[in-house]
Amino acid sequence: MTASLCLVMAQINPLVGDITGNVDLVIKAAQQAKDEHQADMVVFPELTLTGYPPEDLLFRAELLRRVKVGLLNIKENLKGIAVVVGYPELGDDGQLYNAASVIADGQCLATYYKQELPNYSVFDEKRYFTKGTQATVFNYGGIRFGLTICEDIWFTSPASQAADKGAEVMLNLNASPFKQKKHEQREHVVAERVAETACAVIYVNLVGGQDELVFDGSSFAMTAQGEKVASAPAWETSLCPVMMNKVEGRVQLTGSTANTADDLAMTYQALVVGLRDYVEKNHFPSVVIGLSGGIDSALTLALAVDAIGADRVSTVMMPSQYTAQMSLDDAKTMADGLGVPHSEIAIDTIFQQFKTDLAPHFKGTKTDTTEENIQARCRGVILMALSNKTGAMVLSTGNKSEMAVGYSTLYGDMAGGYSPLKDVYKTLVYQLADYRNTLHPVIPERIITRPPSAELAEDQLDQDSLPPYEVLDRILEQYIALDWSFQEMVAAGAEPELVQRVITLVDRNEYKRRQAPPGIRITGRAFGRERRYPITSGYTVT
Question: Where along the chain do its domains lie?
Answer without folding.
Answer: 2-260, 265-461
